[in-house]
Amino acid sequence: MTRYVGAIDQGTTSTRFMIFDRNADVVASAQKEHQQIYPKPGWVEHDPMEIWERTQEVIRGAMESAGVQAKDLAAIGITNQRETTLVWNQKTGEPYHRAIVWQDTRTSRICHELAEEGGKDRFRQKTGLPLSTYFSGPKLAWLLENVGGLREAAERGEAVFGNVDTWLIWQLTGGTRGGAHVTDVTNASRTMLMDLESLDWDEDILEVLGIPRRMLPAIRPSSDPGLYGKTLADGPLGGAVPICGDLGDQQAALYGQACYEVGDAKNTYGTGCFLLLNTGAEAVASKSGLITTVGYQIGDRPAVYALEGSIAIAGALIQWLRDNLGLIEKSSDIEGLAASVEDSGGIYIVPAFSGLFAPYWRTDARGVIVGLTRYIHKGHIARAAVEATAYQSREVLEAMRKDSRVELKELKVDGGMVVNDQLMLFQADILGVPVVRPKVNETTALGAAYAAGLAVGFWNNESELRANWAEDKVWQPQMEEEERERLYQGWLKAVERTFDWVE
What we know:
By secondary structure, this protein is of the alpha+beta class. The chain is about 35% helix and about 20% strand. It contains 16 helices and 23 strands. About 55% of the residues are buried.
């Protein structure tokens, strides 16, 4: 009898495999980091083969540690870093280029040229997205322009495109031996190539970007009873396990947080920071700098949409302090260093390392530290770095209030940074609403597991999933309203200093 569901969580800095039981408790987990490659300023790449190797290693590691075999797994789901763009040869399995990561800004010229006709919202009505280096479509156009022989191989049907979910599903289901070339609606909605209404690739946009349709994967529901395929017996799972759940990481967290009602919202604090609000069957057009995206689609039910505020740099700022400046030895040291001072000493750090995402969408912005005096030391810098994530989340929430006219009663949070109590309290203070952390913090992997488990009847319905959700800790706002607004106005002034840096 199958007792568990597995989930591959392929993120920006690491890959993890987690095994859950029916109560959504973690049975086993294994995780490995992969290399971050920076060929030029603003360029960020990953090695697709390294990601595939790490995926195999963590699957084997988790299953061995728990004594779980393929026959014990009802299904597996996949969740992934979104927008990261891969192209490979279906016959050989070889990538044509390293993966271009979502943070990469090399497509600035392409986006600027596209915006000359119709502005940066040229495709927003169809896709819900502004023209930005963030999304996969311009990255794929860049690859077709710059990788020798790629366009010809694409037109022959040899070269194919996918985000990381598509790459891993293809490998797990056979690769060069007939692997499934598929994606789900949430990942497709982040390419800037899919029509939100039809949930299909848009021929007009493909023509404008010069992308052959035959490169693109088939678009399927996030939870697919028809399955994307089964794993191979000689693969890392060692048996024929159905793969039937697939969501982009932030949509997976929305689903794992049981945000199934209109107005439910969650914020994930990882490499970047992503706040999603469930808008139900309606794709709400944003007038305040947010993204309209697919939240999830379960089987043959209508798609559920969401508004999203995407913040490029959150945990990545702490990694920068660790790796580039040597301010701390490990990321967890940031909380103690930030707690060594009462406040940030009047400084703000705006981490616009790759421009600003929501609600500004400014590719010309670059990071700043403002308000420096001789009084400032490393404790103040650490505190300002922690607070930067909370301020950016406040900006996104303000935009959501304008677009949705929904007043949040609380904010559900998840991701690696929510273990930082100081950040969570400051987040509650600067928002003025309670912040709630669930007992299972790894809601991204859990959302993918839920999607897969529903497809095969391991779980019966969303009521059952909602019953699994449990509160771990709540932070109540303690800051006076006058102080909250004073600090926030200082942040807005700091953000303005990042504009127009790149000509």
